[in-house]
Amino acid sequence: MPAAMRSSGSEAIRPGLGTWRSLTLSGIGLRMHWLILVLVLLLGALQYRLWVGEGSIAELHSLKREIALEESELERLRARNRELQAEVDDLREGSEAIEERARSELGMIKPGEIFIQVIERPEPPK
């Protein structure tokens, strides 16, 4: 018998089996398309949240900039506090700092000193 004529006989019993298999495979393909679509949408949503949403990379960089600014401001205030503490210590321990402040802020002089005030002439308008 020629090869084309040989058969196991199942084709004769179930003649629509080939059609059924193609429908099943196309159904699986359709399910795969839906699965791929859902996965792509999920990936897009996660990427959106990563780049734009709450807790995103842009927000992280913004917060890091704010932290750096606050740290520099904190260091400036700490330096100012150290200067003020040194001034307080000078005022507590010695009279030179008190004398200097009285002269510069209140215009006071010691007995026997002569106060000379220099007034500069304003430049004439051109």
Automatic annotation (TrEMBL):
NCBIfam families noted in UniProt: PRK00888.1
Spans through the membrane: 32-51
Presence of keyword Ribosomal protein: no
Role played: Essential cell division protein. May link together the upstream cell division proteins, which are predominantly cytoplasmic, with the downstream cell division proteins, which are predominantly periplasmic.
InterPro entries, per database record: Cell_div_FtsB (IPR023081), FtsL/DivIC (IPR007060)
Cytoplasmic compartment segments: 1-34
Entry's localization field: Cell inner membrane
Gene giving rise to this polypeptide: ftsB
Subunit details: Part of a complex composed of FtsB, FtsL and FtsQ.
UniProt-recorded name of the protein: Cell division protein FtsB
Keyword Cell membrane: yes
